[in-house]
Specification:
heterotrimer, A mainly alpha (about 150), B mainly alpha (about 500), C alpha/beta (about 350), B: about 500 residues, mainly alpha, two-stranded antiparallel ribbon, 23 helices, 2 strands, C: about 350 residues, D-Maltodextrin-Binding Protein, domain 2, ten-stranded mixed beta sheet, 11 helices, about 20% strand
Chain lengths: ~150, ~500, ~350
Amino acid sequence: MNNLAKHGLASALTLTLAIVFYVNSLKLPDAAASLPRILAVIIILLSFAMFGEAWYNERKNRKVQQESNEPIHGFRVFVFAALIALYVILIKPLGYFVVTPLFLIVALSYLKATQLWKSVLIALGFTFFCYMLFVWFLSLPIPMGLFS
Amino acid sequence: MDSIMLGLLNVLSPFNLLVIAAGTGIGIFVGAMPGLSATMAIALLLPVTFGMDPAAGISMLASLYMGAMYGGSISAILLRTPGTPAAAATVLDGYPMAQQGRAGKALGVSLTASLIGGVISSIALLTVAPVLGKAALSFGPVELFAIAVLGITIIGSLSSGSPIKGILSGVVGLLIAMIGMDPISGTPRFTFGTMYLFNGISFIVALIGLFSIPQALRLVEKDDGVQKALSSFKDKMLPTFKELKSMIVTILRSSVIGVFTGLIPGTGGDTACWFGYNEAKRFSKEKEKFGTGHPEGVAAAEAANNAVVGGALIPTITLGIPGSSATAILLGGLMVHGIMPGPTLMTDHALITYTLIWAVLLSNVFMFAEGLLLTRAAVTVTKVPNKVLAPIIVILCVIGSFTISNSIVDVFVMFSFGILGYFMDKLSIPTPPMVVGMILGMMLDISMNQSLLISDGSWMIFITTPLPAILLFIALISVLQATPIFRIIKQRLKKIAR
Amino acid sequence: MIENVFWKKAIMSGIAVSLMLSLTACGTTSQPTATPSAPKVSDYPNKPIAVLQGFKAGGGSDQLAQVTQPYLQKILGKTLVNQYIPGATGAIAWTQLAKQTEPDGYTISITNTPMLMTNYLMNAEIKYSIDELTPIANVVTDPGILVVSKDSPFKTYQDFEAYVKANPGKLTIGNSGTGGDDFFSILQWEKATGLSVKMIPFEGDGPSWQAAAGNKVQASSTNLGVVYSQVKGGNLRALALYSEKRNELLPDVPTLKELGFNMVAGSSRGYSAPKGIPDDVKKKLTDAFVEMAKDPAFIKGLQDSALPIDIKIGDDYGKYLKEQEAVFKGIWDSVKDSIKK
């Protein structure tokens, strides 16, 4: 995706957000709706401005500071994000003690961060450390899932 | 005078010293954990102090508050993940410094600035508290509206690169803050039929997501190369005398800002760090250096958030009005001990009050000493491979955001903001303005509607009251400063002068 | 594959070991169980009791818990574990209590009026109701109080009323938020007197009385326990109390009843369990509160924190909640159209 298309998508997203909020504000009492409506209108204007700016830059063929001369592993980031999503979804039903070490081991192995035995050690150690810190020391709740 | 000396003697008892040292240490440690803010840490350790005598218990909690304010900067600098919301502004220059291999120096600057900010606020607490305390009552809806507007102008100065993107990010933050129960009409706004949104989206949860998840994703983008900055221990941690001299004005300014932000009920460290950072940038001759790893940026934010501690305690002990959410919990603690916080605290319970004040002052010393030790250890985090660090950051964020309200919905919200933050980063849309918008949005909306109710809908109320008028005038100047008009006027003036 | 199984086993046993270790280290962290198990009534309680709190740790609701629970633990012989589920002014915790909690007496909750009822009276999204709860006991009722700044021209309640009569709808009065107890008490007062004032909602009691003390609003309707020390310290002047009798903390402040208006209002905090808990469990719990209320140390603890004690046990508490619900519903139905426009 080129720069212009990316900005177009972002503008479309903020525009949608602003419109959804604006429409939603119509059924609110006036006092509650006034500021959100002003903000929604500002966002609509800025969305167009952002797209305009990107379009202007594109036409002028100005290279917007392209970072990274080294290519990034897009697919790896995607898989890692998906792993995080799975972790977040499963932690409540399965519980902290099942999902946390699994997430660490799978993530560390997939990223080829260290050898497997080190991953397992890190996973168990860190899981235990977090448990001690949050539950034993601060008596905070963590999702227990199967272990409840 | 007697009570001051008695308080000093009381605080110097071995048990009290131990309790203060422990409180400060726990504060630094807990503050460094993302998701555990100072307020939460105080609330959690409150029951522990019930067994102690009131003076020792409250002193422990106050020193915990002080420690947490510094602790937040450790993870902000090393992991680009603010440990507490009050350390969000520290990320802007702290993390770039760590990337350049100056993590130790960044932490040293943070510690020194925290010490100075903390000591200044403690001295203010000890000497001029009764005078300043009265000021807390002069902040009503109209004044808070002006402060919120002034805070929002910070968005402009955080938008390096494209101002359009920065302002867009900030306004979206403001709009997100509107989600939840509207306290004026009692109607749920933009909650889309779910009661989980009645309290709105917690900016702490969003902040964790916006800063930390993108960082975790970025860490796995590339293979660990040789460029992984090595924080050498040869690099001296504490700033040299020359370095300190170059930023002492900034530290002092931030300390004063911190004391006053703490003083105002409803604003605390999370606001003060941005005010401190913004003013440092405004008065700096090297504005362009901010955001690229400028030690002054770290010092500005960190002096301000530690100065909040003393500032927030001023109305707390003189009037029984908490200056920040953390001090509100301290008041609750006093009440469980059977001490009614209120205007009589300084007279009826002088010993406890003065022990507390001296404890706050002393906690700075402990913070500095313990900070030096802990920081040496903490810098080793930079030696952990990025790919190991990434999943560990994720776990801390997930558990941290869950514990805030014991809610899995918060974790989903945190993750969503994380993905949002990653894409914003790719489009070089800055995330800090969004955080500022979320912090100030509700304050802006409520104070605006309250003021308009009081004035029967007339906007003149903001101009005819002196303090808000001055604050709004400063806000106007800040906005103009960012536009070309200001530069043109400046050039014209120079020409005329010639 | 085999290796996989091996690792899984290794992980599971690792988990089990660390779990066992941690469980022995600290046995007080059990979650409210959803596992259906026939409650053994005879030896209730035989494990820790979870107390759901709908507000953040360190708030007013938590304060009651901290003062009360040491005594309850002593009487019941088991620990009470606080679980903080803040959100939607308590509604998230109370929905969980009413809808998702096993009625075995091992999960109870602190219930605060008027939020317990106004939550669902005012918002269709909130589905629980007090009919789905078993009221155990009320502990504290903090009566409403009318305060003005120390340098206000209103020296007495009569001055205040005369001003409102002369300037209908002009006087600004702070409350703790639309839908809170003070919001309802001002409406009740307007109804009783036929006068009208300009209500300014704040985010909680603190900002409301502080605005009055700083002369940002002309008066504030708040609660005795909240402002007692300010009145005593001279920052605020109390004009009237909305309780049955005068309070010994402020014996000079007249009640609205004395002044000729039949009106009593305030906010109360007590404990409730889900509907359908076994009768003997309920009896154990209510008996514990009866016993606690006799303890002079407990009464002194509440007094020191300016929490006015108001013990209502079991069905008395239930009746009180029902009456309050009717009052709030009546008031809300009469004003909601003008508020929600």
